[in-house]
Amino acid sequence: MPLPLDAPVDKRDRPYPPPQRAELSEQGRMRRRALMLVAALGMVATFPAWLQGSVAHAAPAASPAAAPAEFLALSQLVTGRSQLDTEVANRIYAALSQKDPAFPNQASALWQHANAGVEGLQQAALSDPALSKALTNIVSAWYLGEAGGQVVQYKTAIGNQVVEDVVVTPSYCRAAPGYWTAQPPHTVARSI
Q1: Residue 137 main-chain phi, psi, to 5 deg
Q2: d(CA 94, CA 99)
Q3: Cross-strand bridge partners of residue 147
Q4: pLDDT tens digits for range 111-147
Q5: Residue 63 — φ and ψ, nearest 5°?
Q6: Using alpha carbons only, how large is the chain's radius of gyration in Å?
Q7: How far apart are CA 27 and CA 41, in angstroms?
Q8: CA distances from 70 to 3, 29, 40, 75, 89 (A)
Q9: CA 64, CA 66: separation in Å to the nearest integer?
Q10: From the centroid of its chain, how far is CA 88?
Q11: CA 111 to CA 70: how far, in whole Å?
């Protein structure tokens, strides 16, 4: 049977003792201080990681060092494109140089062979497997947008530009969700 709210309560009927403030011994206080100090040091030790995360989002990444002008000219020759982005060329050169320290020398040697035209590059690629690999890496970087295991460009990669009038660049949506359910417009095949 419940007691009325205004009924006096006998404090002796409580199933637990009344709370009492426990006095810590000197040793207990020292342990508590040591524990708080360890927790504070742990927070301070991980602070650079917090700071790095916020700084990484706040400041843009530094641009890679400029690629030699010969690299851009070599890239224009092997891709057949006269207009290539110099910033992308810098990223490709930096990524390939980072992956293979011999790449700058190989690119320079390819440029020397390029003075004889495309035939000179073909002869160099056929005679030296290292130059062939470097040449393949340069062309792949421009067409695929990946160099040395790093993405250096995506939507502007030549491979995506070639087909952008008929194929949506992967992960980019050209219209509202569900646009593919509508009947496509009538198109006429282009002659190549």
Answers
A1: -65, -40
A2: 9
A3: 150
A4: 999 888 888 888 998 999 999 999 999 999 999 999 9
A5: -70, 145
A6: 34
A7: 21
A8: 95, 71, 54, 8, 11
A9: 6
A10: 15
A11: 6
**Sign (positive/negative) of CA torsion 109, 111, 116, 121?**
positive
Q: In the predicted model, is pLDDT for residue 61 greater than 70? A: no
Amino acid at 119: E
Q: Which of 166, 139, 144 is nearest to 155 (CA)?
A: 144
Copy the structure tokens of residue 162.
């070639």
Q: How far is CA 19 from CA 9, 13, 189, in A?
A: 17, 15, 87
Q: Where are the alpha helices (DSSP H) in the chain?
A: 26-58, 69-79, 86-99, 103-114, 118-127, 129-144, 158-162
Domain spans of the chain, in order of start:
69-167
Specify which residues 146 forms β-bridges with: 151
Q: What pTM, to 2 d.p., does this model score?
A: 0.58
Residue type, 161: Q
